[in-house]
Design brief:
By secondary structure, the chain is α+β, with helices and mostly antiparallel strands. The chain is built from 5 helices and 5 strands; from the N terminus they run βααβββαβαα.
């Protein structure tokens, strides 16, 4: 298995994996076109983040993860957020995520500008929790909160409160 940075030729498989990830982990149905545009935007702009893929010589891309960056002024360093973690069903429990994670951790250590690796997961995904703990990740005292701006804007537009 080879771990490498994703390239534009990987957009279709990454977008497909992301749609499957959302369905399998959260029961969400994502629009493939929107996801494809999002993956393409990130791959064209490394300031947004990086995708890494796990490639099997016979099967092609079988796993992925994405990192995005958060600057921490408290630490004068970056936090890399791990997102879009997915392994093809036929390759699960075969160390795909472990290889991706170890590759990422080695890059972070080598850079000396990365303070930590973080991720968020669906609260009840115990299988993922066990896998992350096995790799040394620890639960923190933070909780993730969100204000979905797109929903607020849609509601206001429906009420006629905002224009285009």
């Amino acid at each position: 298995m080879k771990i490498r940075k994703a390239v534009l030729a990987d957009v279709a498989v990454i977008a497909e994996f992301n749609v499957k990830l959302a369905e399998e982990s959260e029961g969400l149905r994502l629009d493939l076109g929107t996801v494809t545009e999002g993956v393409t935007a990130l791959l064209r702009d490394p300031a947004k983040g990086i995708y890494f893929v796990a490639e099997n010589p016979e099967a092609g891309v079988v796993g992925q993860l994405m990192i995005t960056y958060e600057w921490s002024d408290w630490r004068n360093g970056n936090i890399w957020w791990i997102q879009s973690v997915y392994a093809h069903a036929k390759f699960r429990r075969r160390g795909v995520f472990k290889l991706l994670f170890e590759h990422l951790a080695a890059l972070a250590e080598k850079s000396r500008k990365v303070w930590s690796l973080r991720l968020y997961m669906e609260r009840h995904n115990e299988q993922a929790r066990r896998a992350y703990h096995k790799l040394g990740m620890k639960e923190m005292h933070y909780e993730v909160l969100e204000l979905p701006i797109s929903e607020i804007a849609r509601k206001k537009a429906l009420k006629g409160e905002i224009g285009d």
